[in-house]
Amino acid sequence: RFFEFPILVYMPETHAAWSLALDEALLQLSEVVDIQRTDDPAEADITVTVAWGDAYLAQCPRNTLGCSSIKPTRLSDRTVAVVGTVTVLFSNAQKSYAIMHELIHALGIAGHSPHPEDVMYHNNQYAPAMLSERDRNTLLMLYQSPGLQEDRLRG
C-alpha cells in the first residue's frame, strides 16, 4: 500500500471517454483514500495506460479487461517508494469499472470479492460503476492499518 499522500495518478493523453472514466473512478476512491490526478508523469505514484493488441498482451493476460501491479522501488539506501501501474484494454466498454477495479488492485488490494455487487468481484459481467460498502470497507481496513495518519483517511 502507499504511505505518502496524496496518491497521484497519471494517465497519458488518450480518448476522452477513458479520461472521464478515470476522473469518475478517482472521485469515488477519493471519498475513501487521499488520491488525485496529476498531469505530471514524473510525480505519479500510479500510471494508468490504455492499450490494445500486442501492447496490451505484453502487459496483461489474454481474456482480461485489465491488469495492475504495485512494487517497491528503491530511491536510495534508506528510501523506498511504491510505484503502481494499471493497464486497461482499449476496447473495453466498461471503462469506469475496469479502471476502478485495477486502481484498487494498484492501491494494494490483491484479492477479489466473492460478491457480484462489488467492484472487486473477479469476473463481473454486471460491472458496477459504484464502490460497494464492502469495497469501501476493504480499502479503509488496508489504509487504516498502523503507520497511517488518521487525517489522510476520508471514511
Question: How is this structure best described in words?
Answer:
This protein is α/β, with parallel strands linked by helices. 27% of the residues lie in helices and 21% in strands. The chain contains four helices and five strands; from the N terminus they run βαββαββαα. Helix 1 crosses helix 3. The longest helix has 14 residues. It is globular.
Q: Summarize this, please?
A:
The protein is α/β, with parallel strands linked by helices. It is built from four helices and five strands.
Low-confidence stretches: 148-152
Structural class, by secondary structure, is alpha/beta
Alpha-carbon distance between the two ends:
17 Å
Q: What is the molecular shape?
A: globular
Helix percent reads: 25-40%
Q: What characterizes the major β-sheet?
A: 5 strands, mixed
What keywords describe this structure?
155 residues; alpha/beta; five-stranded mixed β-sheet; 4 helices; 27% helix; globular
